[in-house]
């Protein structure tokens, strides 16, 4: 496995939010058919819903008991970055930058972050072929960001993400933690079910050496709370092959939001 290349490439994908995701072999902080073409599904409710408090978000956040495999932890401190720490080259693409880096957009009343690392997979027997090793590293890392909003702020986040998907489908670039990230293109993907609104996408990232690989992002709304999911797969970061969004993680998180 080209561990050095994987580390370098994954870092280039997002030095901010994916700093957690590229350490799958290390530690992290312990401190339905409704899905459509990726565009936000507007089964939207217009009545005002009170924003969840920080304590309520903590209770509703993904926990170890909610998943069948892998490990849930609090997100690393390096993933708790501010909006002004990332600089998109095109302002209209800022909602996508925030979604991919796990930054809560707008002016949230409260935020909570969790990470999930898929359980390790061992090669069958003594197989040490490149294919077997790629399979062993076929592990997803997910950064989950929950944010609650007052006065229609959650609906505005989904509206802005949809607009950015249209405006930035041909790609965009941004700088975070001193590292420039280039997104080659943005394509709509299958969105999670169980939300009032949901939008999902595959971003194709161009690494330092011109290699390309996919990153999955979904942004959902349940009442006045936005749950976003930024996903990287270690094998995909090395090979450039596509991978499936881990719907079971989104399903588990959305179920806890009521």
From TrEMBL:
It comes from the Bacteria. Residues 1-24 form the signal peptide. Keywords: Signal. The keyword Signal applies. PROSITE patterns: PROKAR_LIPOPROTEIN (PS51257). This is Lipoprotein.
């Amino acid at each position: 496995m080209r561990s050095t290349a994987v580390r370098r490439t994954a870092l280039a994908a997002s030095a901010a939010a994916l700093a957690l995701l590229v350490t799958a072999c290390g530690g992290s902080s312990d401190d339905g058919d409704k899905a459509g073409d990726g565009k936000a599904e507007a089964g939207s409710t217009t009545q005002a819903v009170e924003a969840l408090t920080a304590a309520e978000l903590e209770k509703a956040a993904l926990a170890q008991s909610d998943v069948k495999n892998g490990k849930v932890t609090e997100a690393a401190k390096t993933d708790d970055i501010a909006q002004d720490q990332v600089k998109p080259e095109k302002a209209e693409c800022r909602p996508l930058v925030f979604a991919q880096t796990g930054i809560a957009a707008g002016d949230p009343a409260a935020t909570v972050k969790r990470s999930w690392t898929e359980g390790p997979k061992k090669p069958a027997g003594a197989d040490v072929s490149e294919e077997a090793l790629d399979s062993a590293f076929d592990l997803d890392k997910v950064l989950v960001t929950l944010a609650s909003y007052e006065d229609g702020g959650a609906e505005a986040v989904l509206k802005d993400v949809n607009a950015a998907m249209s405006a930035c489908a041909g790609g965009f670039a941004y700088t975070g933690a001193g590292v420039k990230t280039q997104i080659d293109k943005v394509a709509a993907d299958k969105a999670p079910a169980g939300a009032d609104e949901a939008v999902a996408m595959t971003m194709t990232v161009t690494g330092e050496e011109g290699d390309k690989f996919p990153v999955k992002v979904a942004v959902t709304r349940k009442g006045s709370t936005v749950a976003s999911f930024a996903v990287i797969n270690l094998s995909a970061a090395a090979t450039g092959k596509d991978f499936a969004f881990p719907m079971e993680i989104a399903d588990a998180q959305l179920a806890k939001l009521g």
